[in-house]
Design brief:
Chains A, B: One of its GO terms (biological process) is positive regulation of DNA-templated transcription. Chains A, B: This is Cu(I)-responsive transcriptional regulator. Chains A, B: It is found in: Cytoplasm. Chains A, B: One of its GO terms (molecular function) is copper ion binding. Chains A, B: Keywords: Coiled coil, Cytoplasm, DNA-binding, Transcription, Transcription regulation. The structure is a homodimer. Chain A is mainly alpha-helical and about 130 residues long. The first copy, chain A, has 2 domains: about 70 residues, Multidrug-efflux Transporter Regulator, Chain: A, Domain 2, CATH 1.10.1660; about 50 residues. Helix content of chain A is about 65%, strand content about 5%. Chain A has a two-stranded antiparallel ribbon with strand order 1-2. In chain A, helix 1 crosses helix 3. Chain A is flat and about 60 Å long. Chains A and B meet through helix 3, helix 4, helix 5 and helix 6 of A and helix 3, helix 4, helix 5 and helix 6 of B. Chain A binds a DNA duplex (30 and 30 nucleotides) through helix 2.
Chain lengths: ~130, ~130
DNA sequence: ATAAGGCTTCCAGTAACTGGAAACTCAAGG
DNA sequence: CCTTGAGTTTCCAGTTACTGGAAGCCTTAT
């Protein structure tokens, strides 16, 4: 499939997809006319990249994560070690994200939604209490 | 407190803290000697920025999120509306992160951890199945 | 008094895109 | 068949969000 379709399916702009190829994150085939030709496997890599980038992993971390799935040469012990390190990071992110959500949810539920600017959360988070 | 202490407490490099001031994300006091003087409230903003940036929110999104807590002038209806939009985003991120974790966890538990490179997950995620 | 370490500003460099120009390819309409 | 418009190519320049380094001031410890 062409880059436009891969872009739709992955949620990444075509520009970004070409950039990822430049830095060696994937290597799609080329059709006879010179157009890039993406397989479903490429699209999966791209979706994975879209997701992990949007979750705050650096490109290099994404490269490492991708290698967990893609690199058949890598030894299982390696895969397991790297995956375990990343798991810790992911769990930390999950905890932070959950906390952020709870705060916002509390904000939504406790605010009047009218004109009065006296949300109960605001003071707590602005640091008043702890100062 | 000085920028070094604020850096320790927030987990952000001093460089980044100055940069955030440049782009108007906080406005610490200045001591008599010209040094920046951070309050606990500043540190909370910084910790909030550290967290939300590491979770994949752009600086502009962080600015918007910060305004939910900080801007006493903003009307409650506004706060509620913005918070609800961000909640949807956060829930999506949570779902994606959970999925990523489950995949990695499965990888860790099902791999032998020895030399044999035959993790059961690898094929599924590399796109073989769906191709 | 001097040395070390932290702070200041400023300017340049990096990471990860993003936009735009000029040219080629392809599918559809006249 | 020709054209027109949309999609693709490469290349080069610009943007965002930092990050590193130089040069100089401030502070504390010997």
């Amino acid at each position: 499939m062409n880059i436009g379709t891969a872009s739709e399916k992955s949620g990444l702009p075509a520009k970004t997809i070409r950039y990822y190829e430049d830095i060696g994150l994937l290597r799609p085939d080329r059709a006879g006319n010179g157009y890039r030709d993406y397989s479903m496997s490429d699209v999966h890599r791209l979706r994975f990249l879209q997701r992990s980038r949007s979750l705050g992993f650096s490109v290099e971390e994404c490269r490492q994560l991708l290698s967990l799935y893609g690199d058949k040469e890598r030894e299982s012990a390696d895969v397991k070690a790297i995956a375990e390190i990343k798991l810790v990071e992911i769990d930390r992110k999950l905890a932070e994200l959950t906390e952020l959500r709870n705060t916002l949810r509390h904000l939504v539920h406790n605010c009047h939604g009218d004109d009065r600017p006296d949300c109960p959360i605001i003071d707590g988070l602005s640091g008043k209490a702890t100062q």
